[in-house]
Design brief:
By secondary structure, this protein is α/β, with parallel strands linked by helices.
Length: 674
């Protein structure tokens, strides 16, 4: 698989088992609490703590004056207690003195207004002044702790781009022009790529180009797309600059925490992953979604894809409630263990929490923690102890990898291009369609690798391509070659429409995939909110239809009513030795599941578990001669699963039937031939 990270979790951390860790904001507490924390960490089996994430103002209280006394003490204290350190560079948020003396580092939003200090990440990624001061800090931290015996790994900044990914100030404007000149070489090429003949937007001088600030009308979509690319690259360059300093003083692995989650979309992590020594992600249940647990599984699978299929690190999750959603719900009894082991089932070899001790002050004072405000005589503390002992019993799975013979193509650039300002239907959102396909696969019991459009697909029996609106020629050709060689693909509507410049592929939709699918679409026919259409099979759909004709494909289902009665809605095309399905409408969940079930059956794809409504997840990991089958029961009733082996959590032998209590997880080891 291309674009793989340099390493994965446990060779880098030299851990004999699954790592349990947390963020430790020791600077928020008096030194009298630290010894108590050490004793509690030992009791909880904490292996790794992240410190100095937001330490800049503490260790550089004035420009050029450094005070490492507290950080020295805590590094030594953690080492003495057998806890390793994920050491932050401290650059996530600048201290007040920096933005006071240099207000030009502050970020500017698309409406041209400045965002001020008081929160976090109050800095512009393109600011040379911020970069100068940040790297000076990293130099001091790296020189001082690069060979400290407690150091396990480096944590660059924190959740880069969570708040400041897009900056529209004059410094960013100049950096954007430089990025564009490097990308296109000359203005004629840029004008062609951006289609500036439209609306008299042709540029005659680089200085005329600005970031796509808010305008009176919809903005140039190609410019918006390139600004997203530039902004992702600008933050990656910030990471790489810090990494370069760290490597001069230390051989410890370097990474940062990704945000593979439903509400963060500004960073193209396929480009970031190769720069990481190990892949780390932060994930929190998002109760604004219809199915937060399904999104957890999706995020875990996507993080595994970024890790090239190898083990990865969950650097942050919550013990209970978060503080930043409209309604911050705690986890139900048993949910902490169940959610955590779902991450492990899908490839995580490290589980870390934000945070160790719940803050008494600040914006995150109501965010849950391992040690809550009520102390250790609490459900939260007891559930962390249970998780810790469970992870000890699962130590042998460390380093094993997840089994999957179905892949789903996912692309941040296609997300940006799909969810732009001017499009055929505001009801079509990229992530909704990706989640719909993933949900169907999960309910079919199918474990899915989530990979980039440029990934090697040869080992998969089936590849699902939901709403891949933007696709490059090389990636479209690779999917066609995969099917021609005997693979099976399912492509859903609004895919293949534009190239990498957001230029429509002429000759009929779905553009890049017309020959592969054996169909041509003359026109999009979106449906109004609340409108539905019925198919000949009785299936129902909404949001989207297409005026489609087959040019070689077989019609599997067609519209029975609505704006396009009799027009094909689901097709299948023989392409070489394989088959390519096309779903030209947004099927209801059960009906999409029916189509994918049939396509996967014909592909010979494997389901690890039974079909369910999502309350049961079965995922297999493989290491050496052992297969480890995780059975996660999210439901309220005991379930049975047929297999034989040794159950690791209870220590029981499983004859032919595994019984999993309501809300529980079981992990069965089976001997497998090589």
């Amino acid at each position: 698989m291309p674009n793989q990270p340099r390493g994965h979790t446990h060779p880098a951390l030299a851990s004999p088992g699954i790592v349990l860790g947390c963020d430790y904001n020791f600077e928020q507490w008096p030194a009298s609490v630290w010894d108590q924390d050490m004793a509690l960490m030992r009791a909880a089996g904490i292996d790794l703590v992240a410190i100095n994430i937001f330490g800049w103002s503490a260790i550089e209280p004035q420009p050029g004056r450094y005070d490492f006394a507290a950080l020295d003490q805590i590094m030594d204290l953690l080492h003495a207690n057998g806890v390793r350190v994920n050491l932050g560079t401290g650059t996530a948020s600048p201290p007040p003195w920096l933005t006071h003396q240099h207000p030009e580092v502050l970020p500017v939003t698309a409406d041209g207004t400045t965002r001020f200090p008081g929160g976090r990440q109050a800095w512009c990624p393109s600011s040379p002044v911020f970069r100068q001061h940040a790297l000076a800090l990293v130099e001091q931290v790296a020189r001082r702790y690069g060979n400290h015996p407690a150091l396990a790994m480096w944590h660059v900044s924190n959740e880069l781009g969570c708040h400041n990914a897009l900056c529209y100030d004059d410094t960013s404007a100049q950096a954007f022009r430089t990025w564009l000149a490097d990308r296109y070489g000359d203005l004629d090429t840029l004008n062609q790529a951006w289609g500036t003949a439209f609306w008299s937007q042709r540029y005659g001088d680089w200085a005329e180009i600005q970031p796509p600030r808010l305008a009176l009308s919809a903005r140039n979509p190609a410019q918006l797309l390139d600004f997203q690319r530039f902004s992702s690259d600008a933050l990656l360059d910030c990471y790489l600059a810090e990494e370069q300093v760290l490597r001069r003083h230390s051989s410890a692995p370097v990474t940062t925490n990704f945000m593979v989650t439903a509400h963060i979309r500004n960073l193209d992590y396929w480009k970031w992953a190769p720069a990481m020594d190990l892949i780390a992600n932060d994930h929190y249940l998002d109760h604004r979604l219809a199915d937060p647990v399904a999104e957890l599984s999706f995020a875990a699978d996507l993080t595994r894809g970024l890790a090239g299929g190898r083990p990865w690190m969950l650097m942050e999750q919550a013990v209970g409630a978060v503080n930043w959603q409209p309604y911050n719900l705690p986890k139900a009894p048993g949910q902490l263990l169940r959610n955590s082991l779902t991450h492990v089932a899908r490839g995580a070899d490290s589980l870390c929490f934000f945070q160790w001790r719940a803050s008494a002050q600040g914006t995150e004072k109501f965010h849950s923690a391992i040690v809550p405000h009520a102390g250790t005589e609490t459900t939260a503390w007891r559930e962390v102890l249970e998780l810790s002992s469970t992870l000890d019993r699962l130590a042998e799975i460390t380093g094993s990898t997840v089994e999957a013979d179905t892949a789903l193509l996912f692309d941040w650039e296609s997300w940006w291009a799909t969810d732009t300002e001017a499009r055929p239907s505001q009801g079509v959102r990229y992530l909704d369609q990706v989640h719909a396909a993933y949900r169907a696969l999960r309910e079919l019991g199918v474990t899915t690798d989530i990979v980039a459009p440029s990934a090697d697909l040869s080992r998969y029996r089936a590849v699902i391509v939901p709403c891949l609106h933007l696709v490059r020629d090389t990636d479209a050709a690779a999917l066609s070659d995969y099917v021609r060689a005997g693979g099976h693909a399912v492509v859903t509507f609004y895919s293949g429409i534009v190239d990498e410049h957001d230029r429509v592929r002429l000759g009929g939709y779905p553009g890049a995939f017309r020959d592969l699918l054996g169909v041509t679409v003359e026109e999009f026919v979106p449906l109004l909110p609340g409108d539905e259409t019925t198919l000949a099979s009785g299936a129902r759909a909404g949001t989207w239809t297409e005026l489609l004709r087959t040019t070689g494909a077989e019609t599997i289902d067609s519209y029975a009513d609505g704006p396009l009665p009799g027009v094909p809605a689901v097709t299948r095309n023989r392409h070489g030795s394989g088959q390519a399905w096309y779903v030209a409408t947004a099927l209801d969940p059960a009906d999409l599941r029916d189509v994918l079930r049939r396509a996967l059956r014909e592909a010979g794809a494997t389901a690890a578990g039974p079909e369910s409504d999502g309350t049961v997840e079965v995922v297999r990991r493989r290491g050496g001669q052992h297969r480890y089958t995780f059975v996660v029961n999210h439901g309220a009733k005991e379930i049975e699963h047929h297999l034989t082996g040794h159950e690791l959590i209870t220590g029981e032998h499983v004859g032919t039937v595994l019984r999993v209590p309501a809300g529980a997880v079981r992990v069965v080891r089976q001997e497998q031939s090589r």
